[in-house]
Amino acid sequence: MREVGNLFGEHLLPHQRSEAKCIKVIVKEILNKLSNTFSTDTVGLIGIKTRVEKLKSHLAMESNDVRIIGILGTGGMGKTTLARVVYGMISNKFEACSFIANIREESKKCGLHKIQQILLRELLNDGDLKVHNVHNGVLMIKHRLRNKKILLVLDDVTELDQLKKLVGENCWFGSSSRVMITTRDKHLLVSHEVKEIYEAEVLNHEEALQLFSLKALKMDHPPEDYGKLSQAFVNYSKGLPLALEVLGSFLFGKNIDEWQNGLDRLNVFPERRILDVLQISFDGLQPIEKEIFLNIACFFNHVHQDIVIKILDYLGLYPKIGLRVLIDKSLVKLHENQLWMHDLLQEMGRDIVHQECPKDPGKRSRLWLFEDIDNVLTINTVTKEIQGIVLELDEPKKVYWNPKAFSKMQDLKLLKICGVQLMHDLKHLPNSLRVLDWRGYPSKSLTSNFQSKVI
Asked: Tens digit of pLDDT for each residue in 188-211?
């Protein structure tokens, strides 16, 4: 009785408001608290438990300070799913909670002040609240939430201004508040001085096989007759949860012959739904950064960074700052001084080049496949669109390239050839070349008209 008597509550005074109105306020408050209590069912979320624990260690729930935590990773890594699971697990420990999904798209559609309005309405439990402009929204967030213990998730943040106008400083929120931010751009988090950053991880092989099997066969592990094909699809996905879910769901209910046919098709025509998600990060790059990304995807994946920087520098692409942008956006990683990108990101980059002209490789900006290069140089269907050709063969091949094939390549800047035996002497090399590496070139000197300065 003593414990109950010491609880704080509201006093109902007849001259202030009616009993009915008071009950309505109480019901509204209880409903708000109930709405912030979510199920933490993780069935089907493979590998989620270890990732949840790692993220919760960054949250440090026992600490009384205000913490902003970044969840970083490329598209399809499961950042939003992880944030939702943890949000559901800890939401009942806060006075108010808000999960604002897909800020990238929502800010384009309705403006940042509308996102501020959603945030305030949910955290203050006031459906009638209005935010008329961004400046007004900032003031309201700063003054009305500074004494409130809140949990906030900002999903898919793409601009620094979004962070400044939604979670400008820790002092905007009450003690023990937590903010989680999912993004593909590490530079955003660093610029906003977010010190706690969790980097999303791909699934290991066992986890990937289990997720694929659940989606494709509704069982934890594939039966023996589907085992080899399942392994092939898992190897293609390289641990990316999005790819495993899309491919598994597509194959559900199909027979083995259809699985094999789907795998054969995948090697020629990539799955569009996967590439579209990955391409969002590419679309947000500056033009010069796009050029660097495409060159790595087409030519320089798994190549030592010093070699790549030297080549890209000669191409006038300012690679040191550009590579930093790609690394911050989780498009490229640096591993033991080698530049590395996920196989599906590489496939996305090569597909972008392929889509420049699907039916005619001679009208694309970059060529790297022997069949395409041999075809356009033999029948001389090259155009001025070609900027780079890289061909490195393990076994030498005889080629019958047209002697004048290179004369049309007025913008060719990069030419790297290894493993071909020319059956006709070249008559021309373009003066636009900046990088020339032709091992086994059949002559001691270049063509007589060639006057370019190359490395």
From this structure: 999 999 999 999 999 999 999 999
